[in-house]
Specification:
The structure is a single chain. Helix content is 86%, strand content 0%. By secondary structure, it is an all-alpha fold. It has 2 domains: 1-69; 72-111. It is extended and about 60 Å long.
């Protein structure tokens, strides 16, 4: 698949590869593999970079295109479905808890 959606899907696949490497490095941390800490650092930085670029593409390319093509009724249905999915899979109030946690971490570590 090509175009913006193809790029986004490829980035999702790349993100999963990086997460897999991170899991492996965390599992090896503290063992005889002396490079695990360095691998964690490098993979985490790579993931942050990928995610930052990915979110920028969503916000500045993909979402504006979608907003121009989705009518108000469809938009309303999408919002309802996302809210339902969030309640069923994540749990009521979790979204707000995650935002509060991020704010706390930001205040604690990005002073």
């Amino acid at each position: 698949m090509f175009g913006p959606i193809g790029v986004m899907l490829a980035e999702h696949a790349e993100g999963r590869k990086i997460i897999s490497r991170l899991k492996s490095a965390f599992a090896a941390y503290g063992s005889s593999r002396s490079t695990a800490a360095q691998e964690i650092s490098e993979d985490a930085n790579e993931y942050v970079s990928l995610l930052s670029q990915h979110i920028d593409k969503e916000n500045n390319v993909l979402f504006p295109v979608a907003e121009g093509r989705i009518n108000a009724a469809a938009d309303s249905r999408l919002v309802e479905h996302f809210e339902e999915l969030e309640r069923e899979r994540i749990g009521a109030g979790k979204h707000e808890e995650f935002h509060a946690m991020l704010e706390h971490l930001k205040e604690e570590y990005l002073k």
